[in-house]
Amino acid sequence: MKEETIDLKYGKLHIIKTSKFRTISVKVILKDKFKKENITKNNFLTDYLTMSTKKYPTRRQLALKTGELYSLYIGAYTKRRGNFLLTCFNLSFLDPKYTEEGMLEESFELLHEVIFNPNVKNMSFDATVCNIVYEYLKNEVKTLKEDSKIYANTEMFKIMGEGKPYSYHGYGYLDDLETITPKNIYEYYKGLLKTSDVDIYVVGNVKSSEIKEIVNKKLNFKTLKKDKGDINLPEEKPTKKIKEIIEDSSFSQSKLAIGCKFYGLTEKERKYVLNIYNLIFGGEFNSLLMTEIREKNSLAYYISSSINKPDNTMLIQSGISYKNYKKVVKLVKEIMKKMTKEEISDELLEGARIEYLSLLTEIDDNIDDILEYYYLKNLMNLDELEQRIKEIKTITKKDIIEISKKVYIDTVYLLKGVSNEKN
Description:
With 423 residues, this protein is of the alpha+beta class. The chain folds into 2 domains: 216 residues, Cytochrome Bc1 Complex, Chain A, domain 1 (2-Layer Sandwich), CATH 3.30.830; 174 residues, CATH 3.30.830.10. Helices cover 43% and strands 22% of the residues. The chain has 15 helices and 11 strands. The strands form 2 sheets. The protein has a 6-stranded mixed beta sheet with strand order 1-2-6-3-5-4, with helices on both faces. Helix 1 crosses helix 4. It is globular and about 60 Å long. The relative contact order is 0.15. The mean pLDDT is 94.
């Protein structure tokens, strides 16, 4: 299974052919430089565009149309990746050979309708639909505080990031939402289509010539190609003092969020070693964090770690009782220090390697995973699958020890709960 990349006037078309599935998946990605105020605007746009178009101005009418197209799925979302803000449109439908002739073009026609033909009146989005979107997003932002885990994580990144792209969460902000009007969001929409880099991915049992013809016809963006810069944020030198914040809450369980940063990574460490390091440290069930803190010492309800390569950050998140707070933080520091020495078992290294290789080799079992793999490969400049598998097999205990010396704690945030329950 190989990727065919076709240069278009406005971007690139990526075709991945496979006869393994009964469906065809399409992803349209509009890439722009990250700005905090655009998070809320893009969230508003994706909701509006998938809720109301010129031909199908109501949700019901749009739903009826997707039903006519054999339960076609169409959706959109906004996501930040490093220095970029991505607006993504997803389309999934049955391979026309299982439905009827003309379904391929009809499916792309609905995607065209959603992206290029919104419900506009007098050079403005429909006010009634805008009010619906406004109320929905306002509720989404307000309920952020109701999920203690999400709230703790977002607060920690806000403190650690201090205005950097990762300090802003993706739910949107009320102050930005209040500035949106039907007219100015329509103007923003037109600007987004003109200035964004465009990548279109198509996965399925398709013919390249047919897809290229349909894409040129139905997804003919007018934007000009322009380099948006590097996805990766610059690395930051270790701070002299760890920031520590404790915030009171009415939640029963305390939520711990520890923010870490990387500094001085080599290309191999960033691309490969970091994945294995994370699995050993806290990225899987038998990781050191789980084994030492939860299983052996019963100090946490759950604990795990996750990495974000473009941001050069790692998040350690845990649900604990407040009385165990100091013990858990101390153990986390001890585990990180141990990993800088030869205190990692061969079994743990091999287990992490097997786990990661399993994830890579299972990609082609799911059409959405295939699409996500190629999209991230190109966005983050990753190597081909065969090369990735080869490199992962070469990682040694020494590699893990060396990268462990380049990971440091920057911020410790605790959302203090009120429960005194035992773990």
